[in-house]
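Input chain follows. Return structure tokens only.
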Amino acid sequence: MFYWLAELFEFEGVWNLFRYLTFRSGGAVGTALLIGLIIGPKFINMLRVRQGKGQPIRDDGPQSHLAKAGTPTMGGLMMLTAIATSMLLWMDLSNLYVWACLIVLSGFGLVGFMDDYDKVRKRSHKGVSGKVRLLFEFLIAGVAVTLIVAEHGTGAGDLYIPFVNGPVINIGLWYIAFGAFVIVAFGNAVNLTDGLDGLATMPVIIASIAFMLIAYLVGNKVYSEYLGLPFILGAGDLAILCGAIVGAGLAFLWFNAPPAAVFMGDTGSLALGGTLGAIAVVAHHEFVLAIIGGLFVVEALSVIIQVFWFKRTGRRVFRMAPIHHHFEQLGWHETTVVIRFWIIAFVLALAGLSTLKLR
């Protein structure tokens, strides 16, 4: 909205800052952070009253988690409110990429809300059927990627990989299926990681900061040509969305820091992961996302390996999956697991960003 007003009334002087991408990105961080901190307490109280006993706790997990009984879930609604409001205030609303990402953010948030609501209503950690969830997620992601491909135009089906200058192959319309898979896979990977207080939030913030830089670079013709990155007109605006995620994530972490006053729930984790996936698809940095978000990838792989091996042999590879619970079962304190995983997420983000120059 601010960008539209600046263009409409031809702001000059200090007001001309509203046209600058960097200023609007910073504004999105501050706006989302402020909104999250303001609505947080009342929002948490509302959830606590409406949910009563809060999110069901798995009785087959670490026994220390039983002390968290009664903590409300669906805190992701607070984050999505802050992000969406910040987006509408600071982003160029004529940009189709903005609406594609907003479709994923709200659509995945709705799917997650349905799952969280089902868990609270049934008093069970089992929510909506996995097949039903995946069906809706792929439909939402498919619509978003179709919009992205239409906006990309020439080169929409190009695939880029780290350390290689230029596109490796063009897969044409198959890119819609590939992009949808990236969005759905990353959404669920973040969802699987969200099992300890603050565990998923900070890595999401770190990945968002990394993609804030990537979105800015690919949206700038000079920088993208210098670094050998694909130039995507309009992608730079997604740096503002990344900023909104950072601000909302910091606000949520204020209330989610151990001991958590609220859980993000599938409402937040699915939406945030899916949105990061959508940003990576727009920027043609899907494989770099797998490096920057490597922590989420490992968490998802640990579940896949555990299920596959148990069905084949009846034995477990890990004491418990996702892998963060494995380390808890080994005797690591929850805070130790969280902080060490944060460090890993930071290192992986640096590794992913280093690929921008190594082409």
